[in-house]
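Appendix C reproduces, verbatim, an entry submitted by the partner laboratory led by Prof. M.T., so that reviewers can inspect both the input and the predicted structure.
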Amino acid sequence: MLVDSHCHLDRLDLAQHDGSLDAALQAARDRGVGHFLCIGVSADNAGAVKAVAERYADVDCSVGIHPLDLKPGEAPALQWLLDELDHPRVVAIGETGLDYHYEPEAAEVQQASFRLHLEAAKITGKPVIIHTRGARADTLDLLRDAQLPQAGVLHCFTEDWDMAKAALDMGYYISLSGIVTFRNADALRDVARQVPADRLLVETDSPYLAPIPHRGKPNLPQYVREVAEFLALVRGESYEQLAEQTTANFKRLFPLAHL
């Protein structure tokens, strides 16, 4: 069984499945995907991801505010986060983090928001799902300051091995998406070979970043199979071994998930 550890089920392009989320999830199940983590990115979609998780027994969700979804100059309220996290299908916090690639001018408010998410993680014990781009040093510094015993995952990882190792040393997991299949992703494939087997997750980040051979098309949860098969090849493992290991890793990182 595979787990799509990071997908945006409320944002999928469902044209391939005649507009049906039921059909899209069944297509993934038919390819061996047994569980889905639907990711929150804003205050506006917190209700939507919880509704999806309530509807399907094999879907859990997270709640948080993506650094690029923050309101200008305004971090979320800690109490809002805690209230939203108090739900049986919400098994993680995020996605949260820092993105200076697109909004370097928002560094201060992004950091304030990230700190609030990490504080909520301390209070609730739920793991964090981290987005980081163009903010390597600040991301690692804030994670070190937080010292979360339950840690979390750096999702859709695209940084180098030095950052991966620093995060791994703090107890974090590394999740790889379809980007690892891209022609110009040699450095990321080097990271993929080195991540310890018990700290690796796979994801689609659908509807974004479809893997080869679907690149340029809307991504779907069913394509996590391509990511896993490619990673198994890169790491010199069987697909079955990688699927079993990454599913076990998901269960360990997200113990509240309904697998």
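The mean pLDDT is 97. Additional entries are available on request from the coordinating office.
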